[in-house]
Amino acid sequence: MAESVSRKTGCLRADAATIASAYSYAWLDTGTHDSLLEASEFVRTLQHRQGIQIACLEEIAYLQGWISEDEARAAGGRFKKTNYGRAILNAIAG
Q1: Which of 36, 39, 44, 46 is the most core-located residue (most Cβ within 10 A)?
Q2: What's the pLDDT tens digit per position in 47-75?
Q3: pTM for this one?
Q4: Do 24 and 50 contact (CB within 8 A), yes or no?
């Protein structure tokens, strides 16, 4: 599997994805079109059945103290009609 780090974002890019939840980790192969589709279906199912938002970056940044409450609230407001935005706003509400 080829891995590289983006100079612009510092993010690791690879042919696989890892998903961590409060209870477990899942390693998802994303090296082919079919496996990428299967991974996206897994994420969608997990989000719908458990009512969680995977990789809600603003929520993570707020909980880690990387952005202020005002910045998180602004991001949540931009997406307030979506589950993504509600996850950010719920993180602020505690």
Answers
A1: 39
A2: 889 888 888 899 989 999 999 999 999 99
A3: 0.64
A4: no
